[in-house]
Amino acid sequence: xxxxxxxxxxxxxxxxxxxxxxxxxxxxxxxxxxxxxxxxxxxxxxxxxxxxxxxxxxxxxxxxxxxxxxxxxxxxxxxxxxxxxxxxxxxxxxxxxxxxxxxxxxxxxxxxxxxxxxxxxxxxxxxxxxxxxxxxxxxxxxxxxxxxxxxxxxxxxxxxxxxxxxxxxxxxxxxxxxxxxxxxxxxxxxxxxxxxxxxxxxxxxxxxxxxxxxxxxxxxxxxxxxxxxxxxxxxxxxxxxxxxxxxxxxxxxxxxxxxxxxxxxxxxxxxxxxxxxxxxxxxxxxxxxxxxxxxxxxxxxxxxxxxxxxxxxxxxxxxxxxxxxxxxxxxxxxxxxxxxxxxxxxxxxxxxxxxxxxxxxxxxxxxxxxxxxxxxxxxxxxxxxxxxxxxxxxxxxxxxxxxxxxxxxxxxxxxxxxxxxxxxxxxxxxxxxxxxxxxxxxxxxxx
Length: 447
Description:
By secondary structure, the chain is of the alpha+beta class. The protein is 49% helix and 9% strand.
């Protein structure tokens, strides 16, 4: 009976089979496959870090133990302190501006049909190397408005509201009745009504004369009025030209302002016609004529973008141009995962677009924004190429950053101990940011 019952009993569950790893091998074999990567990691990361730490404790020759003297230099050397200050500016502003622009672009491009094309254009600078971008912006920030795009735009806007003089280098020639006075010129003696006045000047090339300038003519006398001519007076060779009188080939100073001055007060004024002639009323009788300094104001030459005061913001601008597209693409990817129901619910509850953006969209994108900001912060701590290429030699000290100072100390000034100390200091600055990023990622995984 017992045997029969045993024969009719159903078989129990099969014993579980041992699970193998993905590779179907033991841990020792998996470690063997990881060995090449570990060797490369040690050779390219661990060993250089260890050697830099050791080298930072020795002097320039590498023979004498310097202790922490190289680290003290980081906080006492003026060049390194300037670099540290600039790095702080970079870390504060470059990631913030890039992320803010990326957020704005990502949100706004969702509402336009050509948003994809816009994103492509904004992201394209990421395909350009830092070296190429530096060369591009070195030209963009050129001081000459005829070469630099930034100053060409700036000067164009400025001249729209405050045009410069067409005669910045005009000045009296030989035997001139004019003498310098306050940046302009004044007649040597008073003028009288009915006696034409000649105000010749030189110094303006014919191709730089105003486009509306015409052939200069001698002014005719008018009773009770002061008449005269101001023109570009020059003498051609072989005795053809005459000094002090308009010649057929000479042009009038069209638009030149003439003031009649008595006792330091302007009693009358006029502007020269296209042929250089002008007429003043009888009130100008007995006055001295003045060509004010406004006639000779140098043309506005724009902003010195790469000067000591603006070079760091200018270079940060080029960095933002490159990396705003990176921020935009990541934020746009995060925005695609935002539940639209929440946005619509906020609108139904009466929130306007700004409130939806500030109180719903931005909080939901906070994890993505944190990724972008942290990534850019690590990136700007290592910025080197843009500063080295864009900043001219005259202002490179003012634009200096730690990575550039590391290069200069190690290769240009022959101080590898201080350069190693700067490298270790940069590593210490990056570690807290990396730890923050790791903790944030772990919190995201737990969710």
